[in-house]
Amino acid sequence: MTTPTEDSSLPEQLQVRRDKRARLLAAGNDPYPISVDRTHSAAQVHAQWGHLVAGDETDEVVGVSGRVVFIRNTGKLCFATLQDGFTRDDSGTRLQVMISLAEVGEQRLADWKADVDLGDFVFVKGKVISSRRGELSVLATEWQLASKALRPLPTLHKDLGEETRVRQRYADLVARPEARDMVRTRATIVRSIRETLHDQGYLEVETPILQLVHGGAAARPFRTHLNAFDIPMTLRIAIELYLKRAIVGGVDRVYEMGRIFRNEGIDSSHSAEFTMLEAYQSWGDQFTIATMTRDLIVNAADALGVESVDTPAGEVQLTGDWAWVSVYPGLSEALGEEITPDTSVERLRTIADARGVEYDPAWIDQKLVLELFGEIVEPTLVQPTFVNGYPAIAQPLARNNPGDARLVEAWDLIIGGVERGTGFSELIDPVIQRDVLVAQSLKAAAGDLEAMQLDEDFLRALEFGAPPMGGMGLGIDRTIMLFTGAGIRETILFPLLKPHS
User: Fold this and answer.
1) Of 35, 194, 386, 438, whose CB neighbour count within 10 A is largest?
2) Its pTM surpasses 0.85
């Protein structure tokens, strides 16, 4: 016969913990109290009494709490290691507690042995001492269960598989210091970026995520429906068009850091939702915005205390001057022959065939140049490099080169052979911008799922007049990847994953 708390479908370890919870509740003991009398964190105990040597005792009484990550129950003396939560400055300090028959009495010692499991949160009040082995400890005079864990922790001394780590990040954070460090590193970088922008006079704003018209990039959006208005909507694929509206309205320097959603492939460097920084400066251009972008990366490196990073392509030196490479001259140097905007599509196809670069026969010359540069030149750009002089097809929202309308005033930032960000001298002529967006909308109507839609409200804003401006976009996740060497699923705290079947 089963008791009311039993569930035959549960694994034994889960059932045992549920039975303990039921037993505690039946005895009038709340396994989830509202609060406990915590006076010190583990880090504070270490900071104040870390000087104690083996056998030292104090009369200082503290109340500490944490998750039980190690437990050893012997006859008259039990040991446990409590792990604190981690903070900006602390990766999760651990502290030993000791439960002895002489201090807590026979019943509470027996309760400890019967009630407490790995993973539980407990509160311990007692004197700060150093054990005979020199371990800083709290010798309990009383203890209390603060939260009963109904699932066992992962084995802390074994590596969790990547799939388990990203699906159960909460377990990963408990088990691995590296996971906790990733969260703290990301927070340090994001804070540094915000501080740099603040110091340079930028205002942070928030713009709509749910949008009527998708634009600002060439990407396939997620589509949804707004029941209140009975209209189709999309999740934003970029932040650009609303920030430019803010510039029109007189915000001199503006930025937003937020989630972007693109209904595209997912792999080690792409996620369906990711974090993007976009910033725009009045009276700027591609060069002034590049200087600001370099400041963001260099200051983030300084906040982390590094000057260089290791990447699969080699060591990258972040300080010092950053190079500039133009697409056509850079491709020409790599191929050993001159490639210009006048090079025929037939010649470009021949080069692609000879180099084993795949392409669509329908591609025009500019698209082929982009593919050749991306396959042949980009992987060799290990040190920070601003690649500019792109064919106009690359950036429909960038300004054309005054000397050759077939080129645009835009750059991509390549570090370690990987694109990290992009920047423009922004297109502000509303007539030309309309022509560009109309061409994009015709592509969308013809079935191009990545083409932008015609945004009449954005064009209306430009017609009010926008000052010359520089703009940039920086992938925050890819910036974290640069500094940590991790894949995108590790840098995002809770990444979107394909559900288990």
Assistant:
1) 386
2) yes
